[in-house]
Specification:
With 410 residues, the protein is mainly beta. 12% of the residues lie in helices and 45% in strands. It is globular.
Length: 410
């Protein structure tokens, strides 16, 4: 009896070990981007090894961590106990980069690919009956309408025009759902105002204010926010066609408090264009600067981007502008570092310690996202989120994650 129990326990342990290894392997990405000399941070376990055929990997004698000191594209293999091949990883190695941390508040205007469906409602027809023309079509909130009767849709005005041109005849709609292109047919409903409607609420643009994180002189590109811009109604990351970065004017500071985040209230009306936005990602927004003078930055403050091993717990500073004048430097503390995090924008935990900033804002507030973090004379990362229950604490993204995104800007 005891032998059977022991066998079952051994089998369960064996299956658990296999399950853990399967999870670890799933977390290993198919491709990564690192900087020259940066340690390769991957979630691996006992017996899972990283190898290269052309011996580009260098292993530290003290820590066992592996680096590549050769710029270019490399292929590495993941093996189990150096015997069993698991998968290949494509590695892009970028040259070490210098940036100018910025810290200025700026305005963001984004224009979507197609029009985003943000809601649905019944339509009252000219016969006073109610209709749901979208019903059973498959279209849901968060989907993007890109074509009507093979005509590309780039704005809400174009969609309205095409639907009214139908004169109530069935229209063919092409839309994107969960990154897949789908199609359906809808018969518009004529209202008492002699207009044709689908019962869909849509949006083709978004606007707001945030903080410019860095400017990279070698490519004239910029990174900002440290997180993506999502639709206020659907919560989905906006799939953009284009965008503008413009100067912004701070109107008011609403102080944050525990349980009630504050925000920077600003306007982008009648402001100057700074540059063009080409990417809206989970790790921030990116593009090219057209008018560097509009940022009013000190090009003499160009500095290296810190590798993850160079980031330490303890004191650091952030740059931000809160009063339409100069960018100021405020003290913070880095309290936790998630060195192996390549998956989201919560790379570090930080705490505001500067009483001047706490007096002005109460801590981290909306609009401060993107404020660059500096430690030991190097660009470390950017503020991304506030902890709702503690206004002085929040998250930050590694600088290398943002730079890797900006390197891919056309």
């Amino acid at each position: 009896m005891h032998k059977k129990i022991i066998k079952r326990i051994v089998l369960l342990i064996f299956l658990l070990i296999i399950y853990i290894y399967v999870l670890l392997i799933q977390y290993i990405p198919d491709e990564i981007t690192i900087f020259e000399g940066e340690n390769i941070s991957l979630k691996t376990g006992f017996g899972i090894t990283l190898n290269s055929e052309d011996e580009v990997l260098e292993t530290s004698a003290n820590t066992g961590e592996k680096t590549i000191n050769k710029v270019g594209n490399e292929k590495l293999s993941i093996n189990l106990f150096d015997k069993l091949f698991i998968k290949d990883i494509d590695v892009s190695v970028l040259p070490k980069t210098t940036v100018v941390p910025v810290g200025n508040i700026a305005g963001v205007k984004l224009y979507t690919n197609g029009v985003l469906v943000v809601g649905m409602s019944e339509i009252e027809g000219e016969d006073s009956k109610t209709y749901k023309p979208y019903e059973n079509t498959g279209i849901e909130e968060g989907d993007t309408i890109v074509k009507v009767n093979e005509n590309i849709i780039t704005s809400t005005d174009e969609l309205i025009e095409r639907i009214n041109m139908s004169n109530g005849e069935k229209v063919n709609i092409e839309y994107i759902h969960d990154e897949q292109t789908k199609a359906c047919s809808i018969t518009p409903v004529k209202t008492s105002e002699k207009e044709y409607k689908l019962g869909l609420w849509v949006r083709d643009s978004a606007a707001g204010v945030g903080t410019v994180t860095f400017y990279e002189p070698s490519t004239q590109s910029f990174g900002a926010l440290g997180h993506g811009i999502t639709d206020i109604d659907t919560g989905d990351l906006l799939n953009i066609a284009s965008g503008e970065f413009v100067t912004a004017k701070v109107l008011n500071i609403k102080k944050g408090e525990d349980g009630n985040p504050g925000k920077i209230q600003g306007t982008i009306e009648e402001q100057e264009t700074i540059g063009e936005i080409s990417k809206n990602t989970e790790f921030g927004i990116y593009g090219k600067i057209k008018d560097i003078s509009s940022l009013n930055i000190d090009m003499n403050k160009e500095m290296e981007v810190a590798l993850r091993d160079e980031i330490k717990l303890g004191k650091a500073t952030i740059l931000c502008s809160l009063d339409n004048r100069n960018v100021e430097e405020y003290e913070i503390e880095i309290t936790k570092i998630y060195k192996e995090n390549n998956y989201n924008n919560k790379s570090m935990e930080i705490k505001i310690t500067d009483e001047r900033l706490i007096e002005k804002t109460g801590g981290i507030i909306q609009g401060m996202s993107g404020s660059p973090i500096i430690q030991n004379g190097k660009f470390v990362g950017a503020v991304t989120h506030v902890l709702v229950n503690s206004a002085t604490e929040g998250y930050a993204i590694f600088g290398d994650l943002m730079l890797k995104q900006s390197k891919e800007v056309d």
